[in-house]
Design goal:
Layout lengths: L7 E4 L4 H10 L2 E8 L4 E10 L3 E15 L2 E14 L20 H13 L6 E7 L4 E3 L3
Antiparallel strand pairs: 1-2, 2-3, 3-4, 4-5, 5-6, 6-7
Length: 139
Amino acid sequence: GFGPVAPGRWSVIYAPHMTTMANLAGGQFQVRYDLHQDGTMDSHARYSFPIVGEGYLSVSGTYGSVDDTTCRVDFDEAWIRQLDKDEGTIDEPYATIADVPESLAKTIIRRLGRVFFFDGVSVFPVSFLDDDLIVFDFE
């Protein structure tokens, strides 16, 4: 299983679905996953796009093994932090959903996140894993 090496901070170097979306919209994503010992996780995607600007799209949930060659993530919360350079916004994501100020945008993002969290985006076959690198087999 992945248990012994999973906890820690993991940065995404390349993901076909994110790269395609970013290229189509003329922007970019930088994604990190923080996997905790207790099986919970947070992910923060720093985005920069011409139309929507800059910010973070974040999710949280749990992770685990389906079997020795497949991992699973189950997201249960989603939130954003839009950055406004003119206001001097701190260039960091909100750490948790509880840190996000109450607003209509928070409610909408949470609901949209739950709609898009389904099994098809939860299971990831692993083709390589060591202490420093994991390669998922996106089909």
